[in-house]
Amino acid sequence: MPVYKNFLTSLMTSPVWELKDSILRCYLTLIGLSDKRGYVFCTPEALARVAHVTPDEGYEAISVLEERGYITPFIDGWRIVEFEKVYTLLRADEIVEKKKISQAQKRYNEKETKTL
Questions:
Q1: Which of 20, 44, 92, 113 has its CA 20 to 30 A from that of 38?
Q2: CA angle 62, 39, 59 (to 5 degrees)
Q3: Do 11 and 42 meet the contact criterion of CB atoms below 8 Å apart?
Q4: Does pTM surpass 0.85?
């Protein structure tokens, strides 16, 4: 859970919030549309449609986000620059949680075996 909090805190304190609302909407939409490696495959028009901004605002958002280093162009889309770091942290947190659940299940099974 702390990793999610850290991610959200870093997102909420990011300078991206100082940009125009349409750019912010597009950036948050890119995060939402990205795959587990941070890649987003869509056209600027499709991004604008999903983000509920005009096509011109979608093109402007892509331009500004690339210029400021939030995204980089990739074949048929973009890559969110900081995504690998965030995904790695989220994945590590998920592994810790699975290990806790596995250990709890093992303790439960051992307890059940002793009572039989």
A1: 20
A2: 15
A3: no
A4: no
